[in-house]
Amino acid sequence: xxxxxxxxxIDLKKRNGxxxxxxxxxxxxxCEIADFTxxxxxxxxxxxxxxxxxxxxCGVRFMAETVKMLxxxxxxxxxxxxxxxxxxxxxxxxxxxEVKKLYPDYAVVxxxxxxxxxxxVSDVCVTSSSAVKICRAVPxxxxxxxxxxxxxxxxxxxxxxxxxxxxxxxxxxxAKIEKSDAxxxxxxxxxxxxxxxxxxxxxxxxxxxxxxxxxxxMEFAEKSDKKEFIIGTENSIxxxxxxxxxxxxxxxxxxxxxCHNMKITTLADVLNCLTGTAGEEIxxxxxxxxxxxxxINKMIEYGG
Length: 304
Ligand code: 13P
Ligand code: SF4
Description:
The chain has 16 helices and 13 strands. By secondary structure, it is of the alpha/beta class. The strands form three sheets. The chain has a five-stranded mixed sheet with strand order 2-1-3-4-13, with helices on both faces. A four-stranded parallel sheet has the order 6-5-7-8. Strands 10-9-11-12 form a four-stranded parallel sheet, sandwiched between helices. The protein starts with a helix and ends with a helix. Bound molecules: 1,3-dihydroxyacetonephosphate and iron/sulfur cluster (SF4).
């Protein structure tokens, strides 16, 4: 049944010249029919070079927007229009403008998990994998980091030569994990390495053997000589790694590490996008794109 659905999707996407992108938090069955899987930034770069004129994004809204900004000539469809990222939508532009007035000599560094509107008032964008490198590279000594306080705290610890102001936003999924959850996972699996996404709280990150993005965590686990790993990010990564490395063991940091927004997209949504009966085409006016894409281009310029 799943295989039949997957085959229909594969036939239709080939026939209609459609490229399917799946963030690594998607289920295995969606990753299997995708042209590319990866972290949010890697996907938007892939979309740019893909020969197809239509992109279906299986992920959340800010990811589809980023794809559209980098490939404005393509049709970009968000597979399930209800898939938002609560962190990306936490602060409105007015709030950030008010904070900017308090710190006029601070460069605004925005996590890519932000709306296109917030990107228009930001100087440079970062991903979880590039945040440390970019904050070191920007010429400004003072950085206003938005919106994730946990990622901001991690970056601040790695870039002590700069002054940071942080907003108090964050990912509700990663931020609800407590130090006690990490301690009990480590107690249960004493031989396992602990790999953590920097959206987790600082006291959880402090216990990690490795801190990195979703792709970073997967790469680390695949290349490591070690055999057991506790995965401190969305639980689909546990399943993907288990498929990729059957000789290793992967344990979730917590059974609560589930992003409902990422889980809302189904194979049926993807099929319905291909038949034109579901999904939402991302439309952004040219002025919004040209203002918002600047901070993404700056990130690329700094080697993000
Ligand atoms: P990555 O950029 O590491 O894929 O993370 C996106 C995200 O939403 C993490 O919660
Ligand atoms: Fe947003 Fe967190 Fe879900 Fe990532 S895991 S998409 S940051 S809510």
